[in-house]
Amino acid sequence: MNTRQEKPNVLIADDSSVMRTLISHFITKLGYNALTANDGDACIHSLNTEKVDLLLLDLNMPGKNGMEVLSYLQTNDMALPVIMITASDDISQAVQCIKMGAYEYLTKPVENDRLEITVSNALSELNLKKKVRLLEKELKQQNIFRRIYGESPALKKCIEQAMQVMETEVNVLIIGESGTGKELFAQAIHSGSKRKNGPFVTINCAAVTNELSDSLFFGHVKGSFTGANSDHIGFFEQADGGTIFLDEIGDMSLDIQAKVLRVLQERKIRRVGEKKERNVDFRLISATHKDFSDAIKNETFRTDLYYRLEEYPLFIPSLRERKEDIPLLANHFLESFCTANNVEPLAFSESVLDKLSQYDWPGNIRELQNIVRRAAINRSGAEISSIHMLPQSNTQEKATEQEPAAQPLPEEPFVDPETATTAQPSVDSIPEAVDNSKGLLLKSAELQAIIKAYKLTGGNQTRTAEILGISRSSLYRKLKKYGIEKNLSLSVTKGI
């Protein structure tokens, strides 16, 4: 392995061939790589095509002179130490060059000792600034991604890509299986962007119906339709100055896709019942667990919208692609459980950690978190030495193709203070409400598990999905499948 440090490149820009030759020879003798340019235009070309660490710049050159090259560096935000070398000893000119960012101003003929010290100091300062920028980047990364745990190469690569795109205005499409943490990455990208002080608005596209899409996305004015008792600001307007996150965008209907595409193109919305258009300024991040190639082929997703969304794709690795992170994640979830529930510190045995690491985790991080919580609840001592909740086989289909089956529910629901929401109205009579219209469905174990979870969480869909070990969109599809979403919503609303 080659560990030698790469030699710095020093560009010498001077219209005198004699000066270029003399300085080049001296720079090479000092152990640096010497590049040359015979005028200002050639200098700028080299700056754009070569890796230059230090510029030795003559002030008076044909074409663009030294001052114009300095101005170019400023305009294009090119952080580069520049040593001015000129025959003029005009103090006012020297001061002007320093104000424009020059590191030093030397007059010809330049003494070798003076040049050597100046070049060495300039490169040392450059290295120091690079180290400072690297540390600042690392600190920023640790702060922004503090809720994303792992040291695997796959995760580090994903974080690095997110760091590269977060300060731009490019639309990001986050692609990954259910439970991999797509929303956490979206929040991190927003937090590291120049819009970090603006709102971050999240929409579950799978839960938005065609009938409500106009009002939800664009808003409405009072009296625009029956039940519109006050003005309502839509999602896009709520995200003005910030970021809008369209989760599960692959589940968006074609009618809604057309409306969203128009907003992305024109950056304007019109509230329902209002004639004037409003300008909106937002950054778009979207996420999906679906393969868009099939959706586009089957004409269930618009090609033009897809290319708007996918300006920068970010692929989140599944848990089976970063198995070295499983022990770290399991211990983190266990520690969080103990802290949140005022439980004495617990630990996993090595055999349990090995078992967790060998499992394929079709439900990804969300499934691991649920397993850890149940293991902590069912513990028999301070060390968790057995895991009984894992399925008998690892041959389940991937989470992108099939959601993991509902797991048995604990007698008492786990309450995480970080995700807990305001208590909802009682839903004790939900089974009866459902039984009135779909009595036979109560024989389904899956349906009973959903109803029980609804009762435990007071009708909170997010917490219900967490307890069942499925995504919010999967829960919504199951409610729709059984035809009970309206009954449940009605029960929660009335506080039955």
Count of extended strands? 16
In whole angstroms, the N-to-C terminal distance is 70 Å
Strand order in the largest sheet: 2-1-3-4-5
Largest sheet: 5 strands, parallel
Question: Which structural category do the helix and sheet elements fall into?
Answer: alpha/beta
CATH topology of the largest domain: Rossmann fold
Regions with little confidence, pLDDT below 50 for 5+ residues? 392-443, 489-496
Rg estimate, integer Å: 31 Å
Q: What's the number of structural domains?
A: 4
CATH architecture heading of the largest domain: 3-Layer(aba) Sandwich
Short description:
It is built from 20 helices and 16 strands. It is an alpha/beta fold and about 500 residues long. The chain folds into 4 domains: about 10-135, Response regulator (Rossmann fold); about 155-315, P-loop containing nucleotide triphosphate hydrolases (Rossmann fold); about 320-385, Helicase, Ruva Protein, domain 3 (Orthogonal Bundle), CATH 1.10.8; about 430-495, Orthogonal Bundle (Arc Repressor Mutant, subunit A), CATH 1.10.10.60.
Explain what you see.
This protein is of the alpha/beta class. It has four domains: 9-135, Response regulator (Rossmann fold, 3-Layer(aba) Sandwich); 153-317, Rossmann fold (3-Layer(aba) Sandwich), CATH 3.40.50; 320-384, Helicase, Ruva Protein, domain 3 (Orthogonal Bundle), CATH 1.10.8.60; 430-494, Homeodomain-like (Arc Repressor Mutant, subunit A). Helix content is 46%, strand content 12%. The protein contains 20 helices and 16 strands. The chain has helices spanning 17-29, 40-49, 66-75, 91-99, 112-144, 153-166, 182-191, 210-218, 235-238, 254-266, 292-297, 303-309, 326-340, 350-358, 364-377, 430-438, 445-457, 461-468, 472-482, 485-494, and strands spanning 9-13, 33-37, 54-58, 82-86, 104-107, 172-175, 200-204, 219-220, 232-233, 242-247, 268-269, 278-279, 282-288, 312-315, 347-348, 383-384. The strands form five sheets. It has a five-stranded parallel β-sheet, sandwiched between helices. Strands 7-10-13-6-14 form a five-stranded parallel β-sheet. The chain has a two-stranded antiparallel ribbon with strand order 8-9. Helix 3 (66-75) links the parallel strand 3 and strand 4 (82-86). The longest helix is centred in the N-terminal third of the chain and has 33 residues, at 112-144. It is extended and about 90 Å long. The protein starts with 8 loop residues before the first strand and ends with a helix.
